[in-house]
Amino acid sequence: MDGAQGQTELPQPFDAWFASRGWRPRAHQLAMLDEARAGRDALLIAPTGGGKTLAGFLPSLIQLAQRPPPNAPPGIHTLYISPLKALAVDIERNLMAPIAEMGLAIKAESRTGDTGMARRQRQRVKPPDILLTTPEQLALFCAWEGARLYFADLACVIIDEVHSIWPSKRGDLLALDLARLQQFAPGMRRVGLSATVDDPAVIQRWMAPRPGAGVDLILGAAGAPPVVDILLSGGEVPWAGHTAHHAMAEVYEVIRRARIALVFVNTRFQAEFAFQELWRLNDDNLPIALHHGSLAAEQRRKVEAAMARGALRAVVCTSTLDLGIDWGDVDLVIQLASPKGASRMVQRIGRANHRLDEPSHALFVPANRFEMLECQAAREAIAENALDSEPERVGALDVLAQHIMGLACSEPFNLVALYDELRTAGPYRDLGWEDYEQVVDFVSTGGYALKTYDRFRRIVQGLDGLWRVRNEETALRHRMNVGAIVSAAMLSVRISSGRRSTPGRKVGEVEEGYLEVLEPGDTFVFAGQVWRLMGVTGTDVLVTSAAGEDAKMPSWGGSKFALSTFLARRVRELMSDGDHWRVLPDDVREWLEIQKDHSAIPASDEMLLETFPHGQRQFMVAYPFEGRLAHTTLAMLLTRRLERLGVGPLGFVCNDYALTIWSLKPMDGLDFAELFAEDMLGDDLEAWLAESAMMKGAFKACALISGLIERRFRQDKKSGRQISFSTDLVYDVLRRHQPDHLLLRAARADAAKGMVDVARLGQLLIRIKGRIRHAALDRLSPFSVPMMLEIGKQLSPGSAGEMILADAAETLIAEATA
Amino acid sequence: MSAVAFARSDCGGVTARVGGADALLRATGALWLAPARTLVVADLHFEKGSAYAVRGQMLPPYDTAETLRRLAAEVEALAPAAVVFLGDSFHDRDGEARMAGAYVEALVALARGRTLVWVVGNHDADGPACLPGEVVESVRIEGLTLRHEPLAGAQDGEAAGHLHPCARVSGPGHSVRRSCFVTDGARIVLPAFGAYAGGLNVRDKAFAGLFAAPPLAVTLGPSRAQPIGWRRLVGD
Questions:
Q1: Which residue in A722, A725, A795 is closest to B173 by CB distance?
Q2: Are the beta carbons of B228 and A809 separated by less than 8 Å?
Q3: How far is A500 from chain B (nearest CA, A)?
């Protein structure tokens, strides 16, 4: 580690300001000063509560305080990038204090999507010394005319929570924009601030100003290790379920004893459910609030503000609060249901007690027995400070298309010079010339083999050889569509009023997909209350109050996060090691013992596969422990194979631990090595993927990010719903007529990575080659019980659309012929 | 219980009695009037992709080719004596001028040995200028009046397009949305046949008042059309 050896001292008035607060600069804060003096790029990794943000800003504050009076009005000195708007605004507030108290002539201002028009315009004419903003706003800056001049004085870029930004399309976009800023201001320093990660080198490579350039690593002192407990309700762990419903009374008790608790869950439905249950028990009327991504933004802001005031005792939340502004008083983090990954859990636990010397407290509440194993494995991993790792990223082509269009809107570009610039961005270091040319062609004409759009080009090559945007109108439209976050279309939930059910008061907003499984008349929980769905008109969801009724719980209880590879391995190891079981509660240990007697416990490098009859059906349960995404893909592909083998599979269910397929004919005589052979990742995968809703979803996202489809029109604002339908049509037509099109490739890459986890499935198939442990049983095993309980709650996908229609038609025909 | 008399057809379509005529509702979205050997297709929206490209959205330029491919397949399968285009055959007035020569030739070839009838719509109020065939406001065949936009109120013996009907059906944990025919036995609204033509849910208020009795929806599909009762249909 590059450490501060104490030679570095704080200049005045900083030294006095630290002293006045009773603080001494921490070693990593001084080390960051040395980095700045040496003009080097640096990544600071420190746990929450370590004065990380101040360490990032201190060098800039000192430089600005010591600068001689400028001859001309200076430009922006330091640009701060935060993944969250709220964080940028909060940091602005936090910077005000030292600047005011030391009487420094430094102006720090935030700029987000919510910043008013007047302030935006003023910032453009008279830039602040320190500008705090988001990756999306930076992309917009880079699409401005005059961006080069605006950023010419830039000395430093600080990227906060860089661990959460880089492995995503937002990270791709940010890396490209940093490359552009470096062109404007070659002396610009890059500073990354990150939570503890498994492999800092990946972030260092992402951050580097060009491939191979060094980024120094500064490590803050580790905080006290967190104290993690597992809650056993009455000493028992349920067989199945996802909600931890059984333990809610104890969870409430724990909240009652804590000062402020954050209750994390994995899905929005679980958040609504837990919130409902806690209020049912809330005899003390504790202020308990709810926070998740389907709630209206103003509703979320209100909860955050109440939290900051210390007016709440608990917030039930999803990953929306994984990151965010500091709430010093949180003293307990509760994780309802399984943590899914060690790194995310460390991040969540870090939300409690932002003081380094005291341990954070966390409580895991497993909802079923497999989750108990997972909680135990996560707890051990956290104690050993062992974390999940992220694979290196290859920059997405749809993001590149958006970026190139933005640059053309800012100033003309030279094709070759831009290629060199793009490859200085970490995720695009290996960008091939052919791909690059295709992306430029895509930006210009859509990139079609059929060249009929040449006269409509969006960017054109001038006589000087430079490429520029066609006209100001096109540039304006592009600027309205900048960003790499595709948010789901939002519907307004409104109370239906009058006999004619007209939309009334707005209760909140939900994502389009949230209500997909419900039919009019069904009840559901939203924003902490029970509602009856009356219908959907346009972008309004009409509801009436159904207070006091039981809400229909959606059947799919899984988390949107899949169990991490790292944690999955630890679960397999814990399960295979009989000596290790003594750390587990009695009923879970007995469950494992009976499983050992009746079926088998696989070794950590084996995959257990059970076959047995149950009722009128034959079952096959495989336990790869590779996460729901990989399992679902595997089950889809296995089902196709079983169909070809004449087994007649009827359906399947998957969770993070296992997959179950059932059929009419027995499956115990099958050649499982053949069935699980890797070649299933060839044609079968492609054929299935091409037709899947996931590919269509991925295509839609790529079409929006790349600018093929506009997010908003200036006049006719389309709802996301209408867009969704037409992108499916575009997908079908493009797939038939130009299957190798750039956007189809981009969508395929996204779907394979994010939605079906093809890479992980591939690794799984290699891992279990020759290591499938088959147990042919005459009845179900203890392990299979949780899976069997999930059957009937889910529908097998397969050709689900056709099945639903055929079923509806048969009902009608039966009715007609009765 | 629907008042519509219908049955499945061996071709994957559904036969239904509409306004006194026997109509075959094809799984592709085309309507076949067998006694008159007439194929009816609605809302092709030729050159919709290029209409967007003019405004800077480079949708794939293959929609016209795709719509023609589907049309040619129907003509091949049924060998009609007449093909009626039920309006909005072009996405905009300039669509015909933008259409590539190869596609014009394909339409000319299609017209050989049969009559093309271009019913005008709101997107193409003048009808095509150079393509073979007749341009009409409406036409009567087999006792059915074929026009683009359905007249308000219940109508007997009308076949129209314009509304791009589609149906949503919910199943456990999943719902499916498909283009569809919609008929009450007196009149019928055809689905849009064009590759880029979107759909409007038949539960939308635009359909209110068109039908005297709860209508039947017949959804399109890769191989089979499916008759769905009104009660099984949900809004978006």
A1: A795
A2: yes
A3: 12
Distance CA A510, CA A526 (A): 9
The 8-class DSSP code of residue A564 comes to P
Residue with tokens 């959804």: B219
Give the whole-angstrom CA distance, residue A363 versus residue A357. 20
CA distance B76 to B98: 26
Q: How far apart are the first and last CA of chain A?
A: 81
Which residues on neighbouring strands pair with residue A364, listed in sequence order?
A: A230, A335
**Nearest CA distance, B40 vs chain A (angstrom):** 22
Q: Which of A64, A63, A4 is nearest to A39 (CA)?
A: A63
Q: Residue B42's Cα: distance from chain center in Å?
A: 3
Q: A545, A554, A537, A542: which is closest to A493 by C-alpha?
A: A542
Among B226, B231, B233, the residue to mutate for chain A (most A Cβ within 10 A): B226
Token digits of residue A760: 């992980």
Inter-chain residue contact B170 with A519, CB threshold 8 Å:
yes
CB-CB contact of A30 with A8 (8 Å): yes
Tell me the whole-structure pTM to 2 decimals.
Answer: 0.85
CB-CB neighbors (< 8 A) of B2 in chain A: 812, 816
- Per-residue tokens: A73: 């009005």
Please judge whether A733 and B195 are an interchain contact, meaning their C-beta atoms are less than 8 angstroms apart. Answer: yes
Judging contacts by C-beta atoms under 8 Å, the chain B residues touching residue A813 are: 227
Interface membership of B28 toward A (CB under 8 Å) = no
Complex prediction ipTM: 0.91
Compute chain A's Rg from CA coordinates.
28
Kindly identify which residue of chain A lies nearest to residue B193, measuring between CA atoms: A729
Chain A, chain B: beta-carbon pairs less than 8 Å apart: 142
Give me A356's structure tokens: 């380094």
- Joined together, the tokens standing for residue A506 give 């707005």
CB A484 within 8 A of CB A142: no
- B100: nearest CA in chain A? A452
Dihedrals φ, ψ of A660, to 5°?
A: -125, 130
Residues A6-24: pLDDT tens digits? 456 899 999 999 999 998 8
Q: Does B155 touch chain A (CB under 8 A)?
A: no
The terminus-to-terminus CA distance of chain B in angstroms comes to 23
Q: Which residues contact A28 (CB under 8 A, 6 or more apart)?
A: A4, A44, A46, A50, A51, A55, A218, A219, A220, A221
B 157-196 residues inside an 8 A Cβ radius of A: 169-178, 195-196
Interchain pair A450, B195: CB under 8 A: no
Low-confidence ranges of chain A (pLDDT < 70): 1-8, 49, 325, 328, 353-356, 486-490, 499-501, 511-519, 537-538, 550-561, 712-725, 791-818
User: What DSSP string describes B29-65?
Assistant: S-EEETTTTEEEEB---BTHHHHHHHTT----TTHHH
